[in-house]
Write a structure and sequence with these properties.
The complex is a heterodimer of chains A (424) and B (303). Chain A contains 13 helices and 16 strands. With 424 residues, chain A is of the alpha/beta class. Chain A has a 7-stranded mixed sheet with strand order 9-8-10-11-12-15-16, sandwiched between helices. A 5-stranded parallel sheet of chain A has the order 2-1-5-6-7, sandwiched between helices. By secondary structure, chain B is mainly alpha-helical. In chain B, 73% of the residues lie in helices and 4% in strands. Chain B is globular. Classes of the chains: A alpha/beta (424), B mainly alpha (303).
Chain lengths: 424, 303
């Protein structure tokens, strides 16, 4: 049973290869993979079909976020066609999954944008759902001159400040990325305020998944929690694919926190952490997250341990808005399920593109719109009258409508607690 | 000190799972010098089999302790049997014809088999976390300020039981002797009248069955599984096997527990993010400085 020299080398080599490779890709479910046409100049397509690309995570742990958002987009497209919002044209949605092995993937997101770009009929894109995917897509979509309107990405650096300018690359002043949700510099503090002031929590242990969104929102939450008089006992990052959190939580528990904050999504570990808190003697304390854990997947993974968990959403609760009644009714009639966190936002994101296409078509007397024309229209600063309230895109592409809603998990459901408008 | 003991329990429970998986790596390596990279996925398959069997049992109607124990034993044995069969099939279909091929061929085949198994599980249960039925009551014990529940005890108990059983089997039975003989010298064993093919098949059966047991145990411990879990767990168990001395059964057990404890302690005293770095650094150091592992004998090279 001794090792021969050959085996020893093979051992070392294989180990090295396998360690260097991240989770190697398996078959990607329902990913429409065409390589893009690259940087073709925006041309005017022929025909009477305009397409909206939709890039969302639709499989695995992220599906309970992505699917309801995609449904919102589908509803917008159905309505646009029914009400002839774009005279002379039919709207179609080209929906592509950006999840690989059940988790949102920046690489897949970029492939999806290339795929949209190769179809001249696609004049705008709704998506992505996750900030790290957006971070990978913005440089490409910006150089291609194709508008991305996201329903849910909340990392502030995607639109604001020098980091956002860097992402846009050569066209630092040309905004091509828009979003209809608030950002984590509001969402994080709103959650922290709720923890410190409403729940009266004082000792927090902060975890995050080390992604663009998770790490960002955890930092924002922790900073505000300290400002509110609370103590942050420690801040650890978990790693991709991690399954065992017992040791980490045992260490956190030794400092006797009364709340654990998790920055990240359910698919990157948010549900498992909550589930294993019970194993490590932390089952009775509160668990806070942001919109990444406010989904059905969290309730499913955490199971009975989900109680006493809180999540925020960087959008209004559609139930509370009279203007959204009709939307909610047709959503439930169409999809036979309740809306997700960002269903209404997905609908509104698609509507901003549809409205812009409609305006362009009217101005051009029925000619096929180009991507550049749609982009210009979105940048115009006009007010959109939407089911989640009236708003406009500011010079960075952010919505002027900044509402955070807060939810608590109780007996297998997310219960609405409160919401607040942070627009200045 | 209290914190150290608490982490020791975490480490031992985790190590129990690694040790069970490492046994399969080490047995297969010992007998045909193949690193069976599909082994980690057989382990996850064990969790999938267990939860599928558990779903067929009307668990809510079973409440008494002895009945629950009976259910647990039945599920373990069935999951082990099914994984064992999968192991034999893998050997028969993918590895047997390559037994005398250059070493790289079966190694790449093993990675291919691993991908096939992962995709089968992906198609079977999807790409989300799959919940594992929690059929045991939640009971906690506190000894000297250290808190642990029935599940950690069961994980360690079941792992130790199967390790002892395996040791007895390998060193006390005729088939065990045949395995050791085949491992030492395949041709001579054949000349002595040992059926080498069936001995190797049995080795795969037992190694994979232990992975099935590990799959059940980890499902019980974590309450959830994921189709890619076997990848990381397999690599760590492989590290455990190399640490203990690949081919050495006692070494694999020791290595499993050492890796589990190292992980827990790294998380406590360094940082949780560094656990994989520390574990795989150990792998590299062992390969460089003591390739025969902690318990591996310094036998002369076979020609």
């Amino acid at each position: 049973m001794a090792l021969t020299i050959v085996t020893r080398c093979a051992l070392a080599a294989t180990a090295a290869v396998l360690l260097a490779a991240p989770l190697y890709g398996c078959s990607q479910t329902s990913n429409n993979q065409q390589t893009g046409a690259g940087t073709s100049a925006p041309q005017r397509a022929s025909g009477n079909v305009v397409k909206i690309g939709v890039d969302l995570p639709l499989s695995g742990g992220d599906a309970s976020d992505g699917q309801p958002t995609a449904n919102g987009v589908k509803l917008a497209v159905i309505e646009a066609n029914k009400r002839h919002l774009i005279p002379g044209f039919t709207v179609e949605a080209n929906i592509i999954d950006d999840a690989v092995n059940g988790v949102h993937s920046p690489t897949q997101g970029v492939k999806n944008i290339q795929s949209f770009a190769s179809d001249p009929a696609v004049v705008g894109v709704v998506g992505p759902f996750n900030s790290n995917v957006a971070k990978a897509e913005i440089p490409l979509s910006n150089s291609l001159g194709i508008a991305l309107v996201s329903a849910s990405t909340t990392n502030p650096d995607l639109t604001k400040g020098p980091l956002a300018a860097q992402l846009r690359g050569a066209n630092a002043n040309a905004v091509t990325y828009f979003r209809v949700c608030a950002t984590d510099d509001i969402q994080g503090p709103a959650g922290a305020d709720h923890a410190a002031q409403v729940r009266k929590l004082r000792r927090a242990y902060v975890l995050d998944d080390n992604e663009t969104y998770g790490r960002g929102v955890a930092d924002q939450w922790a900073a505000q929690f300290t400002k509110d008089g609370g103590t942050v006992l420690g801040h650890d990052h978990i790693t991709k694919g991690q399954q065992d959190f017992h040791a980490l939580l045992t260490r956190a528990g030794s400092q006797h926190p009364d709340v654990v904050f998790y920055g990240g999504t359910t698919s990157t570990g948010g549900g498992l952490v909550r589930k294993q808190m019970a194993d490590s003697g932390l089952g009775d304390i509160a668990y806070f997250g942001a919109d990444g854990i406010r989904n059905d997947e969290f309730l499913r993974v955490a199971g009975a341990a989900a109680n006493n968990s809180y999540g925020t959403v960087a959008a209004v609760n559609a139930d509370k808005i009279p203007a959204a009644k009709e939307f909610l009714r047709s959503y439930e009639a169409q999809f036979k399920q309740p809306v997700g966190s960002y269903s209404a936002s997905g609908y509104v994101a698609a509507m901003t593109i549809i409205d812009s296409i409609g305006a362009v078509v009217k101005a051009n007397e029925g000619k096929m719109p180009t991507r550049a024309e749609v982009l210009d229209q979105l940048r115009g600063g006009q007010t959109f009258k939407s089911i989640i309230g009236d708003f406009a895109f500011d010079k960075n592409g952010d919505t002027t409508n900044k509402i955070i809603s807060i939810y608590g998990a109780k007996d297998g459901a997310w219960v609405f607690l409160t919401q607040k408008n942070y627009a200045r | 000190m209290h914190q150290f003991l608490q982490q020791l329990i975490n480490g031992i429970a985790l190590g129990g799972v690694y040790a069970l998986i490492a046994l399969g790596y080490t047995m297969v390596y010992g007998i045909i010098e193949l690193i069976n990279f599909a082994h980690g996925d057989v382990y996850t398959l064990g969790t999938y089999f267990s939860l599928t069997i558990l779903a067929l049992i009307p668990l809510s109607t079973i409440t008494s302790g002895p009945e629950l124990a009976l259910v647990a034993v039945a599920v373990i044995l069935l999951a082990a049997l099914l994984c064992g069969i999968v192991g034999v099939l893998i050997e028969r279909l993918a590895y047997r014809r390559l037994r005398n091929a250059p070493r790289l061929a079966p190694l790449i085949t093993a990675i291919g088999v691993s991908l096939i198994l992962e995709n089968i599980m992906q198609i079977w249960k999807g790409t989300s976390e799959v919940p594992f039925p929690q059929f045991l009551p939640d009971r906690w014990h506190t000894v000297a300020g250290v808190r642990f529940d029935d599940r950690s005890l069961l994980v360690v108990g079941i792992s130790l039981f199967f390790m002892i059983a395996l040791n007895l089997f390998v060193f006390r039975t005729r088939l065990g002797a045949a395995m050791r003989a085949t491992a030492q010298d395949r041709d001579a064993a054949q000349l002595m009248g040992i059926n080498v093919n069936s001995t190797i098949a049995w080795t795969f059966f037992i190694g994979s069955a232990l992975a099935g047991v590990a799959g059940f145990v980890s499902g019980l411990y974590y309450g959830t599984t994921f189709f890619l879990n076997g990848y990381q767990a397999g690599l760590k168990a492989f590290t455990a096997a190399v640490l203990g001395g690949i081919g050495n059964i006692t070494g694999a057990m020791l290595g499993g527990f050492v890796i589990g404890i190292v992980e827990a302690m790294t998380s406590q005293y360094i940082s949780d993010q560094w656990t994989s770095v520390v574990v795989f650094s150990i792998l590299i150091l062992i390969l460089v400085f003591r390739p025969s592992g902690l318990l591996g004998e310094q036998a002369p090279e076979k020609v």
